[in-house]
Amino acid sequence: MLNDFLFLIFISFGKDPTQILIYSLLILPIINSINFSGKKKSPLLYLFTILSFLILSCKFDHQYNVLVLQKNTPILVPIIILWVINWYTSLRVDLSNFRKELNDIIDSFYIKKEYLKRPYKIYSELIKSVNTYMKSELIEDIYCFIISNNKLNLVNSSSFIWEYDFNDDELIKKIKASNNLFNEDIKIDNVDKNRNFLIYTNVEDKEYIFVLTVIKPLSLYYQIIGLPRIFGSSFNKIGRILVLRLN
Question: pTM for the complete prediction?
Answer without folding.
Answer: 0.73
